[in-house]
Amino acid sequence: MNRLSYSFLAGLVGVKVKSFNNDLLEEKSSKISPIYSNIIMTEERQNNVNKAQTCCLEYMKQHQVPGMVVAVSLDGEMVWKAGFGERDVENRVECDGKTSMLISSISKPLVALILLKMWQHHLVDLDKDIRAYVPEFPPKTFEDIEATITLRQLLSHTSGIRHYKDDNESVIQQPYAGVISSLDIFKHDQLLGKPGDKYEYSTFAYTLVSAAMEKISGIDFVDLMLKYLKKFGMNETFPNDEEKIIYHRSRYYNLKEDDEKLLVHAPYVNCSYKWAGGGFTSTVTDLVRFANLMMFSFQNLEDAEAILQHKTVEMMWTPITVQKSTEYMKRGYGLGWRVEYHPEKEGYNLFVYHTGAGSGNSCVLLMKMTTNQDMFHDASHHKNNGEANSEDNIKEKENNLEKMRADFSSEATHLYECKGVEGIAVAIVTNLNDLRLVDLAKKVASAFGAEDSDEVDTSEHLKEIVEVDEVV
User: Fold this and answer.
1) Distance of CA 196 to the CA centre of its chain
2) Ramachandran region of residue 115, left (φ > 0), alpha (ψ -120 to 50) or beta?
3) Which residues contact 165 (CB under 8 A, 6 or more apart)?
4) pLDDT at residue 91, rounded to an integer
5) Does residue 201 sit in helix, strand or coil?
6) What does each of the 472 residues of the chain score in pLDDT, given as a tens digit?
7) Integer angstrom CA distances of residue 398 from 126, 382, 388, 394, 409
8) Residue 86: in which H helix or E strand, if any?
9) Taking a C-beta distance cutoff of 8 angstroms, is the pair 307, 129 a contact?
10) 30: alpha, beta or left, given left = phi > 0 and alpha = psi -120 to 50?
11) Spatial separation of the C-alpha atoms in residues 147 and 160, rounded to whole Å
């Protein structure tokens, strides 16, 4: 191959993103793929889709995004799913509804869900010393005083366990044999604060959660997750193991630091050290299903055919820490989820969401509901009621383990059909790093919910607390 030909091909690989996105706007703007062929695209619904699509394409052009997949459900029904751009730029493979991308920190609410399933089976006490479950984790002190770390604190980022020391820890390439061995990265480090005192976002906190889940269940953490994901009907969600074949998996990209218009491959990451905090890959179809399962559980007071009991979701969505509180809007973090409540707003006034960002990817999963319940008002949901302390009785623990195994071994996924859900779910996955997607998800939701634009907070403070601290 002569030098001229090589230079031409290299130019295709090192795509100038500005030109790429101009092409995207011209060529992909009509790409809409509903999940069900029997959806009737009324004129009103088509207007909804057009508004949402315009928001996505404008965002991609502004932020030079090579590929994006979006899905929206309304009251439990998938109403729109579309892919834009390319999941593999070099081979010109387009994004579509089947595209699988890293979901990074959205792994955290998935893990929280399954831990809370174990809690409902009385297998775990959220307020017990974590060392009772994971003796490999050493005793901790803060300011020379013995410190007790609990699962509730780990799930809510109030344990004092650190996040990454530097960028290198976010792209570790070394494989880890299991979740216990990955504790070695941080288990001997000092705490950032007294457990329970303040919010300090930490992916490694969820690594410790995964170790507890493995120890308590007696099942390898990844196997435990896969068993439950299958039970939930989330058949396109897997650990992002590079050695395994995952169909329709995206490649991941960064913008080169010294040339922000040059698209390059993102650094390889071996996610085995952070499965729970940011190591799963999924599709927008599975993510929207996850959101609807959660909304159904929250809205179903009788707990019939729900993935979790109503009171359990109440507890998850009751913030332990509050990042912002005004007369018109409150925002905080519960157990694995961010919660935003607008007490003075008519109609949709509750947002529950999580974002994720990693090496070459960014994503968001957002739910939008109407409630007359102020999730910030009643902190009693987080009082230890003693329901899960039965693990001290060995025989009872064995019985509870059998109940858990029966729970995920059943093939009856039809139990989780989410009929009667009221609310909007939006899932967005992209293959570019460091994007802030909460505002875009709100705009897409508004396109289908006839909401005012004043719900979108684009302040720098919001971007800081929602996105920067969730890089995994």
Assistant:
1) 23
2) alpha
3) none
4) 96
5) coil
6) 444 343 333 344 444 444 444 454 444 443 444 444 345 678 999 999 999 999 999 999 999 999 999 999 999 999 999 999 999 999 999 999 999 999 999 999 999 999 999 999 999 999 999 999 999 999 999 999 999 999 999 999 999 999 999 989 999 999 999 999 999 999 999 999 999 999 999 999 999 999 999 999 999 999 999 999 999 999 999 999 999 999 999 999 999 877 777 999 999 999 999 999 999 999 999 999 999 999 999 999 887 789 999 999 999 999 999 999 988 899 999 999 999 999 888 889 999 999 999 999 999 999 999 998 888 876 556 765 445 444 456 678 788 888 888 877 766 555 577 888 999 999 999 999 999 999 999 999 999 985 544 444 434 333 333 333 454 5
7) 19, 26, 14, 6, 16
8) strand 77-88
9) no
10) alpha
11) 10
Bridge partner residues of 266 (DSSP): none
The answer to whether residues 206 and 154 touch, using CB atoms and an 8 Å cutoff, is yes
Structure tokens at 458: 């684009």
Distance in angstroms (rounded) separating the CA atoms of residues 221 and 210: 6
243: part of which helix (H) or strand (E)?
A: none
Q: Is residue 376 within 8 Å of residue 325, measured between CB atoms?
A: yes
- Give the chain's length: 472
Q: Which residue has the tokens 């993103």?
A: 17
Residue 468, C-beta contacts closer than 8 angstroms, at least 6 positions apart: none
Q: Is 12 exposed, middle or buried (0-12, 13-18, 19+ CB in 10 A)?
A: exposed
Output the six-digit token pair for 178: 């299991």
Beta strands in 162-202 (DSSP E): none
Token representation of residue 8: 């031409």
